[in-house]
Design goal:
0% of the residues lie in helices and 57% in strands. It starts with a strand and ends with a strand.
Length: 116
């Protein structure tokens, strides 16, 4: 079992920055890829960015060049640095971890609100 706890959300003006954190606990040695997803009001959850255990990253086109995902050396904490935030970045941001058996774990989410 893996437990995930996100933090760092809040209210920010357009053009501002936020840094999200996600800390994993439990069977952290089994974690492979970690990532961030978001869900805007009335929309489906979508991928924002992922990072593999080896450090390979993947980003949604809408956040490339503005967001940066990183991971600590222990592999149990993932960050999302969000710059040049736009109102359309508003939503609940969820952390996901996939273990080596392809089982997914989700955090409860942290709310990001970007005002225009």
């Amino acid at each position: 079992q893996v437990q995930l706890v996100e933090s760092g959300g809040g209210l920010v003006q357009a053009g501002g920055t936020l840094r999200l954190s996600c800390v994993a606990s439990g069977s952290i040695d089994s974690i492979g890829t970690m990532g961030w997803y978001r869900q805007a009001p009335g929309k489906q959850r979508e991928l924002v960015a992922t990072i593999s255990s080896g450090g390979s990253t993947n980003y949604a086109d809408s956040v490339k060049d503005r967001f940066s995902i990183s991971r600590n050396s222990a592999g149990n904490t993932v960050y999302l640095q969000m710059n040049s935030l736009k109102p359309e970045d508003t939503g609940v941001y969820y952390c996901k971890a996939r273990n080596v058996w392809a089982m997914d774990y989700w955090g409860k989410g942290t709310l990001v609100t970007v005002s225009s």
